[in-house]
Amino acid sequence: MNTNVPAGFVPPPYPYDRLDRFKPFGDALEGGIVDLSIGTPCDPPPQAVIDALASSNSERGYPPSIGTDPLRKSIAAWMNRRFGIEVPLGQIAACIGTKEFVGTLPQWLRLRSPARDTVLYPAVAYPTYEMGAILAGCRAVPVPPAPGGGLDLSAISDDDARRALLLWVNSPSNPTGALDDLGAAAAWGRSHGVPVFSDECYVEFTWDGRGRTILEHGLEGVVAVHSVSKRSNLAGLRVGFYAGDAEIVNYLKEVRKHVGMMVPGPAQAAAAVALADDVHVVAQRDIYLRRLDVMARILSRWSGIDIALPAGGFYLWFDAQDGWAFAERLAREGGALVSPGDFYGAGGAQNVRVAVVQPDNRIALVGTRLGVGPQGDR
Fold first, then answer.
1. Where is the Aminotransferase class I/classII large domain (predicted)?
2. Can you give the CATH number for the domain in which 27 is found?
3. CA 79, 40, 123, 11 torsion: positive or negative?
4. Do residue 95 and residue 145 come from a single domain?
5. Within a domain: residue 304?
6. If residue 253 lies in a helix (H) or strand (E), which one and from where to where?
7. Tell me: the pLDDT tens digits for 13-61?
8. Do 152 and 146 form a contact (C-beta atoms < 8 A)?
9. Are residues 262 and 323 in the same domain?
């Protein structure tokens, strides 16, 4: 056997699989584990969306890779209502949920710009930004946070800027909930000739002011990425979209068409209905804000840590000194599974992320186990 052959790529352990050893602690308690680790919505989507999924009659034919006209018109109308901007239909396209878009984007851009090899992304962030770069054979270069949240764009070296395929921004941030200066990111990208991709899938859950999109600062050189997964409790449909710069969007549409990346037709029909309805989103906002408040009170009282509400998103993010130790203790005593912060980069090792995506009674159960009421009383 030739032992000098270099090893190929070996995927690292999937972050959430590393929590499996804590699950028996919760399973041993009455009521079982309360999973607050993954941001999987638990509340029902609107009935009209389910009806559209079942009655579109689109399951027999191949759906358009860019998205059906009804879906893209619904997307354009939503962006106009939500942000007061108009994006031409030709600059809007569907994707199979946004995770696959994030994970495959660097390889498509590398083909377009082979002289560039660097993906810039937030230092504390959703892990797929980094993994997408790795899978494309690119350099993954984290950008540190600014003191007030968002990215410290001044920390990007001239060499990294010259080599950059793209810059990722994420606002509201997963996991921190911080809001970024999207206008500054757009300006930086244009001045350096670097496309800026703005992951805005939590924008409907912005608590500090109104929701913002990078497209408010013009479409040139920027692409916004959105999803119905969080907004409408439709993570299982796998429907997202991207919109912005005409040349970039058109390039990606053509590449993705060749690969056969198509959102199933019934899912597109259902997403079009979901994006046309804002009423259910208003109700969901109230639910998440209430759960954030209750969970923050419970954990603050139990742990002695002053846990603040985020500026956006449905995650609590706080300094626990040792994220893994806190997660294990909470699993043992409260039967709850939460994410240690190093899932989101080395800069989050002291932190913990708590997703308030369980029903109210399950969150209350955690409080009961910890001896804390929903108002933080013992």
1. 33-358
2. 3.90.1150.10
3. negative
4. yes
5. yes
6. helix 246-259
7. 888 888 999 999 999 999 999 999 999 999 999 999 999 999 988 888 8
8. yes
9. no
